[in-house]
Write a structure and sequence with these properties.
This protein is an alpha/beta fold. About 45% of the residues lie in helices and about 20% in strands. The longest helix has 27 residues, at about 235-260. Bound molecules: adenosine-5'-triphosphate, magnesium ion and fe (iii) ion. Adenosine-5'-triphosphate binds near residues 136, 180 and 303.
Length: about 350
């Protein structure tokens, strides 16, 4: 199926077009620069930027794919979770296009999209797939027997998300926003064993599949403050590498453990933090040692984009899942257990 997907859950206006598992277009307009001076995403600024970028980005995607809107089999849109006002722009645009073109509308889950996008990279997702979803707002281990209808949370962060921890540490180091890519770059020049930072929730009595990054964040911030108080230079590369190592160590350890415990042979890593080079390398090594097949999409497909939404929408069409109703709501806290928002059909 030929599907156009619209993503506006945070600060990226993404429009992607796929044909089944084939990526035809991936147009992204980001308002990240407008948020940088506030050190985080400002919801009102994001909504306004989506409004301005929406139609030009849809046109750009159609042009890039070389398809005509009338050929589409459906229009998919992120219905949640995310920023309410930002989601509303995408949902409204999707409804308008779908209604005007006479095409079915599929409201899909942003988190399931972060997983399903890997079909564009490595073909059909094995069933079941274990997913480590690590992004700016989420860090979870999910068992996905069927990405269109059955996604089961095994564990998640009890405080900060992994991406949030990267962003906060970058802020303490005054490296700007978003922090993940900068820390990733600095870490390449640093020693991951230079400083021993805590690995949250890895004790014998701790929950096996949950994560915690706020203790790590505090430990790193305190370490930096102590250096500054002593009038010493902060070794940015070593701090970045050691902090990153602590995050990545816990993420990969728990993901491999989840696969082994559940007898699942395929691990996929998705979400913005999956773009992290050290996470990719360590996951590769640990999965190989454990006999697990690892799937991680290229970095551009890990951060928010419209192609991932189109990928999940195409899967909904392929599996004959019911389309959404015209009164599809934007649901800022749509649970991951609902990969899409099926309609109730004509009243
Ligand atoms: P969610 O998907 O939970 O709604 P989001 O949409 O804001 O959150 P994504 O776009 O999926 O998040 O990911 C953004 C996050 O990924 C940011 O916190 C950013 O710092 C982080 N990130 C991006 N690249 C890297 C990298 N190379 N290393 C570590 N973190 C990264
Ligand atoms: Mg973003
Ligand atoms: Fe995301």
């Amino acid at each position: 199926p030929l599907v156009l997907g619209i993503e506006t859950s945070c600060d990226e206006t993404g429009v992607g077009i796929v044909h089944g598992h084939t990526l035809l277009a991936d147009a992204v307009a980001s308002s990240v620069d407008e948020h940088a001076r506030y050190g985080g995403v400002v919801p009102e600024v994001a909504s306004r930027a989506h409004l301005e970028a929406m139609i030009p980005t849809i046109r750009r995607a159609l042009k890039e794919a070389g398809v005509s809107a009338s050929d589409l089999d459906g229009i998919a849109v992120t219905a949640g979770p995310g920023l309410a006002g930002a989601l509303l722009v995408g949902v409204s645009a999707a409804k308008a296009y779908a209604y005007a073109l006479g095409k079915p509308l599929y409201g899909v889950n942003h988190l399931a999209s972060h997983i399903c996008v890997d079909q564009l990279e490595h073909g059909a997702l094995p069933e079941p797939t274990m997913a480590l979803l690590v992004s700016g707002g989420h860090s979870s281990l999910l068992l996905a027997p069927d990405i269109t209808s059955d996604v089961r949370p095994l564990g998640s962060t009890i405080d900060d998300a992994a991406g949030e921890a990267f962003d906060k540490i970058a802020r303490v180091l005054q490296l700007g926003f978003p922090g993940g890519p900068v820390i990733d770059r600095y870490a390449r020049e640093g020693d991951p064993d230079a400083i021993s930072f805590p690995r949250g929730l890895t004790g014998p009595r701790d929950p096996v599949y949950d994560f915690s990054f706020s203790g790590l964040k505090t430990a790193v911030a305190r370490w930096i403050e102590a250096k500054r108080a002593a009038g010493e230079d902060v070794p940015v590369a070593d701090v970045s590498a050691s902090f990153q190592e602590a995050v990545v160590d816990v993420l990969t350890r728990k993901a491999v453990r989840a696969c082994k415990d559940s007898g699942v042979e395929h691990l996929m890593i998705g979400g913005g933090v999956a773009a992290n080079s050290r996470l990719r390398a360590m996951a590769e090594r640990r999965c190989e040692d454990a006999g697990i097949t690892l799937r991680v999409p290229r970095p551009k497909l890990c951060t928010d984009n419209g192609a991932m939404v189109a990928a999940l929408g195409a899967e909904m069409v392929a599996r004959n899942r019911p389309a959404s109703d015209w009164d599809l709501p934007a649901d800022s806290s749509l649970p991951v257990t609902e990969p899409h928002v099926p309609g109730e059909g004509p009243a």
